[in-house]
Amino acid sequence: MTWGVAQSNINMTENLKTQDADNLVTIANQFTLQGKVRGVQAFGSGNINDTFLVTLDSPQEEHFVLQRINTQVFRQPQLIMRNMRIFTEHIQKRLQYTPLSRRWEVPHVLLTKDAQDNWRDSDGSFWRAISFIEGAQSFDTMHDKSHAKEIGYALGMFHNLISDLPPEKLADTLEGFHITPLYLQHYEEVLAKTSPRQSPEVNYCLQFVGDRTIWAHVLENAKATGKLPLRLMHGDPKINNVMFDAATQQAVSVIDLDTVKPGLVHYDIGDCLRSGCNPTGEETEQWESVYFDTDLCQGILQGYLSVAKAFLTENDYAYIYDAIRLIAFELGLRFFADYLAGNVYFKVKHSEHNLARALVQFKLTESIESQETTIRNIIQDLR
Ligand code: GN1
Ligand code: MG
């Protein structure tokens, strides 16, 4: 799946029951300040929130993105909106004073007719609207090395543009997010309450996690001992959250900004690489053929460092390999724990979906581990 209207075959309100579609139009209308809503369609492939693309008949604004925030996950959705307004305004100002020589866009929050940044429907659902990056699209898997460099550039540019905003200006919108020891603790609690159906796949996962519990503290230890500083991060810079200009094929935006908050840039570097260097994609069912492509890794890091070198320290480089390995492992652990818990966090299409996703990430972790020297050399050569 891709984000971007250029590629999608828009059949207005397709897949939505008539009543839902009417409701969605009513909700979209709250955020429509000019023109009329022509249609609302399900959009994207997010695992947490529900996302829709609204099409307007206004020449000034053709589309916007409408989302229902999953408040089981984001308990204080108003903090997301506050954060988003703070950092998007910060970036806009920076770009105004020091314009870039190429296209770069930052999605912005759209207000309701009452100038609010969210709207609660009669069920209490939390709705918000974000501007749409027109003439752009995203991809679930990497095409080639130049695509990889652009992905890296986009993450570096995103980090660069928020690097002078003090981390404490933003709230923690999702406590424990990317704190691997807390995911381990949760996993152990879930395990204590369940007796998973035995299978070679489940046993593989149990063993895989068990063998890595001590090492899994690596980034949190580095944070606690001051080796890695708290900075602002994106939180979810996976490959399909980078938008590409449909004509130039250059990266033009990083979207999905709900988890921009204080953290480690290493979580982002790890997440970007674990998603970008897995040529089969994270939803593949062929988990046995999953591998980590070091050529794409070189491309992403080259693109990233072309923008991020300015703010990285010696220690930052020293932990990049661990970050790549850890975030792949951590996502596998999160999927596996959710499978054991009965699929309560990530949306699933079938009951074994999270197990399949966990196997993909663990296989990827194995591939990263088996290429440690190559990956460390790539990092060393780019410094
Ligand atoms: C979730 O909802 P989505 O797809 O943007 C998750 C990320 C995972 C990702 C894996 C808040 O993101 O951490 O990396 O799934 N987001 C949250 O695809 O947990
Ligand atoms: Mg996300």
Can you tell me about this structure?
With 383 residues, the chain is an alpha+beta fold. The chain has 2 domains: 7-75 and 107-132, Phosphorylase Kinase, domain 1; 145-382, Aminoglycoside 3'-phosphotransferase, Chain: A, domain 2, CATH 3.90.1200. It is 43% helix and 12% strand. The chain contains 12 helices and 11 strands. It has helices spanning 18-30, 77-97, 145-162, 180-193, 200-210, 218-224, 265-276, 294-308, 314-318, 320-340, 353-370, 372-382, and strands at residues 37-42, 50-56, 63-69, 109-110, 119-120, 126-131, 136-137, 231-233, 242-245, 251-254, 261-263. The strands form 3 sheets. Strands 1, 2, 3, 4, 5 and 6 form a 6-stranded antiparallel sheet that branches. A hairpin with a 5-residue loop joins strand 5 (119-120) and strand 6 (126-131). Helix 3 (145-162) packs antiparallel against helix 7 (265-276) and helix 4 runs parallel beside helix 10. The longest helix has 21 residues, at 77-97. 42% of the residues are buried. Residues 1-15 have low confidence and may be disordered. Bound molecules: 2-acetamido-2-deoxy-1-O-phosphono-alpha-D-glucopyranose (GN1) and magnesium ion. 2-acetamido-2-deoxy-1-O-phosphono-alpha-D-glucopyranose is lined by residues 46-48, 73, 174, 236, 238, 256, 259, 282, 331.
Give a quick summary of the entry.
With 383 residues, the protein is α+β, with helices and mostly antiparallel strands. It is built from 12 helices and 11 strands.
List keywords for this structure.
12 helices; 383 residues; binds magnesium ion; globular; alpha+beta; Phosphorylase Kinase, domain 1; three-stranded antiparallel beta sheet; six-stranded antiparallel beta sheet; 2 domains; Aminoglycoside 3'-phosphotransferase, Chain: A, domain 2; binds 2-acetamido-2-deoxy-1-O-phosphono-alpha-D-glucopyranose
